[in-house]
Amino acid sequence: MEGRLANAWRLTANDKSFIRTALLSEIRIDGRKPYEYRKIVVKFGREDGSSEVQLGQTHVMGIVTAQLVQPYRDRPKEGVLSIFTEVSPMADPSFEPGRPGELAVELGRIIDRGLRESKAVDTESLCVLAGKFVWAIRIDLHILDNGGNLVDAANIAALAALLTFRRPECSLGGEDGQEVIVHPPEIREPLPLTVHHLPIAITFGIFSNDSILVIDPTHNEEAVMGGRMTTTVNANGDICAIQKAGGEGIPQRVIMQCLQLATAKAAGITKQIKEAVEVYNTERALRKIKRHPTSIGVNVKEKQDQSVDK
Amino acid sequence: MEEKQSGSPASLIDSTVVPGDVVLDLSSMTNQTIKLGGGLRQDCDAISVMKAGTLRFSKPNKYWVESSQKRYTPCVEDAVLGIVVDSKADNFLIDIKGPVLAFLPVLAFEGGTRRNIPKFEVGTLLYLRVVKANFGMNPELSCTDASGKAAEFGPLKDGYMFETSTGLSRKLLSSPTCPVLEALGKKLSFEIAAGLNGRVWVNAATPDTIVVVANAIMNSESLSGAQQIIMVEHLLKNIQ
C-alpha cells in the first residue's frame, strides 16, 4: 500500500490552480496557445515496419509484424489486423506491471477503431488462399515515456509503422496449387501494405470552467482537465471515429468546433508522416543499390577526360 | 554520518567515480572529522562510492557524489520540495520523489506544540529539510533549520512547481548563480525555490512570466553557460 503511494505521480494543489488560472488568459504551461500542437518527431528503425514517435515528452514505439494464419470462418477472404499496447511502469510509475490497465485497453481500442472501422488498411489484399491462409498484421505499441496525450502519439506511431512495413511476397505452388511458397526478401522484393488513407487521432482536453478547450493536452493538463474527447479524422475531412469517455459533458456546438480544428490539424500531421515515410523509402532504396568502389573511380576519371577533350 | 579519523584529502575530487571505488582511506587520516554526503558509504576504514557521478568536496570536510537522475535518494541536510500525501496523528506523509514516502513530524515546526498543529491539505507544496535518511527507514523531514527557526522553510503558496533532474536543480542552487537565472533575473522579477530532489517552484506576478521562467529553466539542462544566456535572450525577445 505504502509502496504504491510512493510510486504514484501526483500534482500539487499549486499546479492545479495555476494551470486553470493561466488557461483563463489562454496561456499553457509549456508556452503553447490552446489550439497549438506539440512538435512531432517521426523516426524509423533499420527494420521495415518499426517507428518511433516523439510528441513533446511523450515517446511511443510502434512495430508491425505479419504472420500467415487461417482466416476467421465468416470472413474467409480477409486478412486480420490486431493492435496490442504495452504500457510499462518505465513510462509512468503509476502504470502497474502485468495486467493491462484501463488506459492501455482504451488506447488500443481507440486506435483499433480508427484504423479498422474506416477500412484504412486493405484487408482483402492480405488474402493468400481463401479460407486457408491470410496475413495477420500485428501492431505492437510500446509506450516509452508518458508526457501526456498517448493516444495521438501511439496513433501516429502505428500509422508510420504500417506505412513502412513490407510483407514477404508469396505465391501458390506445389502439385495441387494449394501450397503456399513464401519468398525470402533477397529473392523477391517484399510488398508494402495497401493503406487507403491515414486516420489521425486528435485529442482535446475540456476544462470545466467556462468550457475551455485545449488540443494535445500534456501530462499535467490531463491530471487537471475535466474531460477528454478524441476525434479520428483523415486529411479529406472524413470522420473515422469519435471517443468521448465520461467526464465533463460537451455541447454539440463545441463538438463541431473540435471537428473543424481536428480536420485542419490532421492535414498537417498527414503531410508530416508522409514526408517522413518518403525520406525513409529513399534511404531504403539507396541502401539496396550496390556500388563497387572501383567503378565509381573509373567513372570520375572518364568524366574528367571528357571535359578535358572538350 | 560523522567520522573521527585522519589523513589527507582524496585526489579523486572532481573526477568521475563509479560504484565500488574507494575514495578515502581512513586509516591514513589522523585527528580529522569528515562528513559524508549522498553516494558515499563507510566500510570499516574505507570510504567507497555507491553511485556513478562526480566526487565533490567542500571545505572544510564534506564529501559527496554528484550525479543527475530522475529519482531522488534522500540525504541528510538536503533542502527539498515535498508534496503532502496524507496526514496521520503524529506525522504528515510527504512525497519527496524518493523510493519511499518521508515523514514530517507534526511538531517539527518553529514553536510547534501539540496545541498548534498546522493543517495541510493533500497536495500542499512544502519547502523542507531532510533530518534523517537511514536505510530501511522512511526519511524524516523538518520545517525548521538546525537551530529550530522557521528560516525559509514551510508551505509555498500559489506559483507553479515542475520537475527536473536532480543535477539541474543542484546547478540552480550553485554559487556563483547559474547563468540562466542570472539572465532571467535581469529582465524579470520572480521568486524561485529549488529542491535538491529535482523539484523547482516558481512564482511571479503574472502567469506568462512563470511560464517563461519555467520553460527557460527546463530548456537550460543540456546547454552551456553562454548558450543559456542566448536562449534566455531569445525567449524574452519573443515575449516583448
TrEMBL record, chain A:
Localisation per UniProt entry: Cytoplasm; Nucleus
GO BP terms, alphabetized: exonucleolytic trimming to generate mature 3'-end of 5.8S rRNA from tricistronic rRNA transcript (SSU-rRNA, 5.8S rRNA, LSU-rRNA); nuclear mRNA surveillance; nuclear polyadenylation-dependent rRNA catabolic process; rRNA catabolic process; TRAMP-dependent tRNA surveillance pathway; U1 snRNA 3'-end processing; U4 snRNA 3'-end processing; U5 snRNA 3'-end processing
Membrane spanning residue stretches: none
CDD domains (alphabetical): RNase_PH_RRP45
Domain Exoribonuclease phosphorolytic intervals: 36-168, 197-264
Nucleus is among the record's keywords: yes
Record's GO cellular component terms: cytoplasmic exosome (RNase complex); nuclear exosome (RNase complex)
Domain of life: Eukaryota
Single GO MF descriptor: mRNA 3'-UTR AU-rich region binding
Any single Pfam family the record assigns to this protein: RNase_PH_C
Alphabetical UniProt keywords: Cytoplasm, Nucleus, RNA-binding
Family note: Belongs to the RNase PH family.
Name of protein: Protein ECERIFERUM 7
Organism: Herrania umbratica
Gene name linked to the record: LOC110412810
UniProtKB/TrEMBL annotation, chain B:
CDD domains (alphabetical): KH-I_Rrp40, S1_Rrp40
GO molecular function, one term: RNA binding
GO cellular component: cytoplasmic exosome (RNase complex); nuclear exosome (RNase complex); nucleolus
Domain Exosome complex exonuclease Rrp40 N-terminal residues, every copy: 34-71
Top-rank taxon: Eukaryota
Keywords (A to Z) from UniProt: Cytoplasm, Exosome, Nucleus, RNA-binding, rRNA processing
Principal cellular location given in the protein's record: cytoplasm
Gene Ontology BP annotations: CUT catabolic process; exonucleolytic trimming to generate mature 3'-end of 5.8S rRNA from tricistronic rRNA transcript (SSU-rRNA, 5.8S rRNA, LSU-rRNA); nuclear polyadenylation-dependent rRNA catabolic process; poly(A)-dependent snoRNA 3'-end processing; TRAMP-dependent tRNA surveillance pathway; U4 snRNA 3'-end processing
Residues covered by the K Homology domain: 159-207
Presence of the UniProt keyword Ribonucleoprotein in the record: no
Record has Lipid metabolism as a keyword: no
Compartment annotation: Cytoplasm; Nucleus, Nucleolus
Family named by the database record: Belongs to the RRP40 family.
Entries under PANTHER family matching the protein: EXOSOME COMPLEX COMPONENT RRP40 (PTHR21321:SF1), PNAS-3 RELATED (PTHR21321)
Name under which the protein is recorded: Ribosomal RNA-processing protein 40
Annotated organism of origin: Herrania umbratica
Gene: LOC110422458
